[in-house]
Amino acid sequence: MCRPMDLKNLQTAYDDFNKRDAELVARQELATTDRERYLLERLRRGLLVHLEATVQEESDRDFIGQIERQIAGQQRAA
């Protein structure tokens, strides 16, 4: 059976995102070429995509867990 949404995992992912994003922003401010700024922006976008995937994965697990609990409850009632 799936576990309910792991808020600690989500908070850790969000904290990690904020830390890394702040580092990349600082590096962007120091970048001397457009290429460097572009690559750092791409890294920031990749971090955001990773965070979004983590949130979606936890949401999916929570939804599946809810369905499994409903089915188990119906089976016990029958």
Keywords:
78 residues; mainly alpha; 2 helices; 87% helix
Would you give an account of this structure?
- It is a single chain.
- This protein has one domain.
- With 78 residues, it is mostly helical.
- α1 packs antiparallel against α2 (34-77).
- Helices cover 87% and strands 0% of the residues.
- The protein is rod-shaped and about 70 Å long.
- It contains two helices and no strands.
- It has helices at residues 7-30, 34-77.
Oligomer: single chain
- Large-scale geometry: rod-shaped
Task: Work out the strand percent.
Answer: under 5%
Poorly predicted ranges? none
Biggest sheet, open or closed, and with what strands and sense? Answer: none
Average pLDDT level: 88
* Strand element count: 0
Order of secondary-structure elements: HH
The residue fraction in helices comes out at over 70%
Structural class: mainly alpha
Q: What is Rg?
A: 19 Å
Tally of contiguous helical segments: 2
